[in-house]
Design brief:
Length: 260
């Protein structure tokens, strides 16, 4: 397999599938870091795999809640299963959210933050499975996720705090006028627009580097040598999921707390 080959790209229908979408979705323009690149739907297939895994895992989690051993949440699952994975990831996200934005808002935004954590983790971990590629090693995937975060926290900020959220972009009122607005506006805009860029590039750099290292070690010696790097890759996948989710929580927490 090549660097961009996976089990699904080797299927007979894959080339025709990509060709059918290429004309309408191919990017022909170039600017700065966006240079010429080949068109591929590998990241889309990886995202579909992640969504499928999450659906199966959540169904297993619902079934586990109905069992006698875990009814009413009194006992955790005795084994590491898909249900236990969902419970562990979402539970960790909830605890982080409580520390940042309080219990009330943590419960309200858990469907968003918990979904981000599950989705990103299921995409990251694909880089450790032979024949699969992590969708998060492409800028298009990460930038799309980061822009969703950008829209959510700004939208929530405006909805919850109204004009006071907009006011922090122009600075305090001094003597009845916003004298510091010319300085505050470009500074605040630069800060907020840098957030999705930093979110996407941080995730891209770490997952791409980890995937390349594992691939190189596997190519050198396929048995034994890759094991420590696979363990390290698992740690990287977890940490990068944590960082992206934690920053999302922080951004939302800061937005809803503007009125304070």
């Amino acid at each position: 397999m090549g660097d961009h080959d996976t089990w699904y790209t080797l299927m007979p229908f894959w080339e025709g599938l990509e060709a059918s979408f290429e004309e309408g979705l191919r990017r022909d323009w170039k600017a700065l870091a966006f240079q010429e690149s080949h068109f591929t739907l590998i990241h889309v297939a990886g995202a579909i795999i992640a969504v499928t895994l999450i659906i199966v895992a959540t169904m297993r989690y619902r079934q586990s809640l109905n069992s006698e051993a875990t009814k009413n949440g009194l006992l955790p699952s005795p084994r590491f299963t898909l249900a236990a994975m969902v419970d562990g990831i979402v539970g960790a996200v909830y605890k982080l959210s409580v520390d940042v934005m309080g219990e009330k808002d943590a419960k309200k935004f858990l469907p968003i933050t918990g979904t981000f954590a599950l989705f990103i983790f299921c995409m990251n971990i694909q880089g450790l499975i032979p024949g699969l590629l992590p969708p998060t090693d492409t800028l298009k995937t990460n930038l799309a996720l980061a822009l969703i975060v950008f829209v959510i926290y700004n939208g929530v900020g405006v909805y919850r705090t109204g004009f006071s959220y907009i006011q922090h972009f122009i600075g305090p009122k001094l003597g009845g006028f916003y004298w510091l607005a010319p300085m505050f506006i470009p500074l605040e805009l630069a800060t907020h627009f840098a957030r999705p860029i930093s979110l996407s590039l941080r995730l891209l750099g770490n997952i791409l580097a980890d995937h390349k290292v594992v691939g190189v070690m596997t190519g050198l010696i396929a048995i034994g040598l890759p094991v420590p790097f696979l363990l390290l890759g698992t740690l990287v996948a977890i940490i990068q999921t944590l960082i992206f989710t934690l920053l999302t929580i922080v951004y939302i927490g800061l937005a809803v707390a503007e009125h304070h």
